[in-house]
Amino acid sequence: MSKRIGEGFKGERAIILPYNIRDLLAKNPITEQLYVTHIGYYPFAKYHYRKREKGTNQCILIYCEKGSGWIEFNNEVHRLSRDMTFILPANQPHAYGADDKTPWSIYWMHFKGSKTSMFSQIINKVIDTSVSYDSRNLDRILLFEEIYQNLEMGYSIDNLEYTTFCLMYFLASLKYLVQYREVKKPKELDVIQKSILFMKDNLENKITLDDIAHSVGYSSSHFSNYFTQKTNFPPYDYYNQLKIQKACSYLQFSDLKIKEIAYKLGYFDQFHFSKSFKKEMEMSPKDYRKKYNP
């Protein structure tokens, strides 16, 4: 059996609020409604595992940014992969962990408060926020970062009250997915970001230039010219660079074979993948793994 750990991952971040601050939060008329007690991010959390026989007295939110893992609750096992969220209820036995081959990267938080029941519809279920051109997942991650960074700056009343409202908005974005996604940003500002987000979320699919252009409502020729002008790279070259970047992560942090990585990222065969990888990284996938994942 693989070794199992609850924390201690390279690049991890976490804030655990002191008990005296939690007491303050529970008494403040604004924050007592909903407040964070723990918050963090675990990247490539290999061997991640937690089991709580009696649960904990907060709800636990886990958002899988990439990779995969599982959550066991109420005699059911739920699989989580990219852009899926699960909220565990308080005071209930549970266990969760990262997949052995493709360990997850997760944003997580513990929260509680008198108004937790407002979000009962999204507790104990997999919430799939798979990316499309209007999914706004990046906005949600930025909101998570806003909560984290405000707590990182200290526990003033203003900071604590502000994070309560941010948390309500974060949870509302999951409960009211349709309404959250209907909000549109100015198109010119969004085109490059949206197209790159679409590319990132289709690294394991076979997509065409037409698909990428369509995701932002442009014709292929117009989009290609605009993207190249703004980034100095043709869109499909940029997409291939993202694929190689993803391949580097797999080589460094997973046990997948090179052949499996090639097929996972949509390459015709291992030879085609190795050729593209070497062109970009100036070393073969085998040499890269040997260097960074000995």
Could you provide a short overview of the structure?
This protein has two domains: 13-182, Regulatory protein AraC (Jelly Rolls, Sandwich), CATH 2.60.120; 187-292, Arc Repressor Mutant, subunit A. It is built from eleven helices and ten strands.
Write a structural description.
By secondary structure, this protein is of the alpha+beta class. It folds into 2 domains: 13-182, Regulatory protein AraC (Jelly Rolls, Sandwich), CATH 2.60.120; 187-292, Arc Repressor Mutant, subunit A, CATH 1.10.10. It is built from 11 helices and 10 strands. The protein has helices at 19-27, 137-152, 157-175, 177-182, 187-200, 209-215, 220-231, 235-253, 258-264, 270-281, 285-292; strands at residues 13-16, 35-42, 49-52, 59-66, 68-73, 76-81, 84-88, 94-98, 105-112, 126-128. The protein has a 6-stranded antiparallel beta sheet with strand order 1-2-9-4-7-10. A 4-stranded antiparallel beta sheet has the order 3-8-5-6, with no helix packed on it. A hairpin with a 2-residue loop joins strand 5 (68-73) and strand 6. Helix 2 runs antiparallel to helix 3, helix 8 crosses helix 11 and helix 9 crosses helix 10. The longest helix is centred in the middle third of the chain and has 19 residues, at 157-175. The protein starts with 12 loop residues before the first strand and ends with a helix.
